[in-house]
Amino acid sequence: MAHPKHDEVRQRYDACCGYCGVSDETVGGELTVDHFVPVALGGDESDENLVYACFRCNLFKADFHPTESDQRNGHVLLHPRRDDLAVHVRFDMTSGELIPLTETGRFHIVLLHLNRPALIAYRLRNRYQELLRARNELLEAEIAELQAIIGAQERYISHLKHLVDNDGDHNQP
Ligand SMILES: [Zn+2]
């Protein structure tokens, strides 16, 4: 059964998994609501504790919650809205992989299997589409520039024609 706050959480996360970024559209169905701190470990139903998550991330995360020794070692899960992911993880545009920048980042990636092949393919496809969009914009700008040049040349040619015609008139006896 869907979580009572499902729609609200979905809206807050823009229909995207807070952990890996796939959307309802990408996976072909609505995602799930994850308790960041598991209910069994005292997690509540507050906005902060409810994360929109895809089935896989939810599965890999399971009931993880850091113990004190985990926390000492930086082995914690990054909260999608509270933590700054960019501090701990970098996206490699060429390989499509997430590269850890900190021990916490490494742990986060491993726990959620964020370099699973389907996710890498997904990121590379997004990147490719971004590049295509940028290239398209560039081509459109080039076309507009060429059209402006053609327009200027047409005006110049018609000006020349006009001069030639007038010149012809003068030569009439
Ligand atoms: Zn996910």
Helix content class: 40-55%
**What class would the helix/strand composition place it in?**
mainly alpha
Low-confidence stretches: none
Instruction: Give the strand line-up of the largest sheet.
Output: 1-2
Q: Classify the beta-strand content into a percent band.
A: 5-15%
Which overall shape is indicated by the principal axes computed on the Cα atoms? elongated
* Number of separate strands: 4
Which small compounds were modeled alongside the protein? zinc ion
Largest sheet: 2 strands, antiparallel
SSE order, as H and E? HHEEHHHEEHH
Euclidean distance between termini CA atoms: 98 Å
What is the rounded Rg? 29 Å
Averaging pLDDT over every residue, what do you get? Answer: 94
User: How many helices does DSSP assign?
Assistant: 7
Explain how this protein is built.
With 173 residues, the protein is mostly helical. It is built from seven helices and four strands. The strands form two sheets. It has a two-stranded antiparallel sheet with strand order 1-2. It has a two-stranded antiparallel sheet with strand order 3-4. The longest helix is centred in the C-terminal third of the chain and has 54 residues, at 117-170. The N and C termini lie far apart (98 Å). Bound molecules: zinc ion. Zinc ion binds at residues 17, 19-20, 22, 53-54, 56-57.
